[in-house]
Amino acid sequence: MQLTTFTDYCLRSLIYLAGSSPKTATIKEIADYYKISQNHLAKVTHRLNQLEYVDSVRGRNGGIKINEKVYHLRLGELIINFEPNMTMVECFNSKTNQCKITEFCQLKRYLMEARQSFILTMNNHTFIELVKNMPMLSKMEKRNNSD
């Protein structure tokens, strides 16, 4: 099972913002840290803002910061909100499915069971559990406190 790059960037952005909290971070700062495209990150940030997972701050010291509610969200819930379809194989998408064996193939059913198990496992953990002991966060905290 593989998450999309979009979901990966969403999660990494939230982790970065948790390390920057309570200060804001810019898209450029996050993109530079992870060495990823600012254009992709702008789309990610837009989605995080739509979901109210980040708060945008305008002005000279503007940027984005993590919304406190994210810390209490379950990881499976976060993933589903970033990737609601989790299309693993062609037959998951009924609009574009061209597979000739769909009507008698059991693969879709087994993959759906696996996907459900994955989400249930991820829902055993909250975002705060994910980030609370990350060494990266303490380094970022020191950097942010030196400003």
Notes on the protein architecture:
This protein is mainly alpha-helical and 147 residues long. The protein has helices at residues 5-20, 27-34, 38-50, 75-82, 107-122, 127-131, 135-145, and strands spanning 54-57, 63-66. Helix 1 packs across helix 3 (38-50). The relative contact order is 0.17. Mean pLDDT is 86; it is low at 143-147.
Output the keywords:
Arc Repressor Mutant, subunit A; 7 helices; mainly alpha; 5% strand; two-stranded antiparallel ribbon; 147 residues
Number of strands: 2
Q: Given the structure, what is the number of helices? A: 7
**Superfamily (CATH H level) name of the domain at 5-84 and 126-145:** Winged helix-like DNA-binding domain superfamily/Winged helix DNA-binding domain
Q: What spatial order of strands do you see in the largest sheet?
A: 1-2
Fraction of residues in helix: 40-55%
What average pLDDT do the residues reach? 86
Name of the CATH architecture of the domain at 5-84 and 126-145: Orthogonal Bundle
Largest sheet: 2 strands, antiparallel
CATH fold-type name of the domain at 5-84 and 126-145: Arc Repressor Mutant, subunit A
Question: What order do the helices and strands come in, and which of them pair?
Answer:
Layout: H1 5-20, H2 27-34, H3 38-50, E1 54-57, E2 63-66, H4 75-82, H5 107-122, H6 127-131, H7 135-145
Antiparallel strand pairs: 1-2
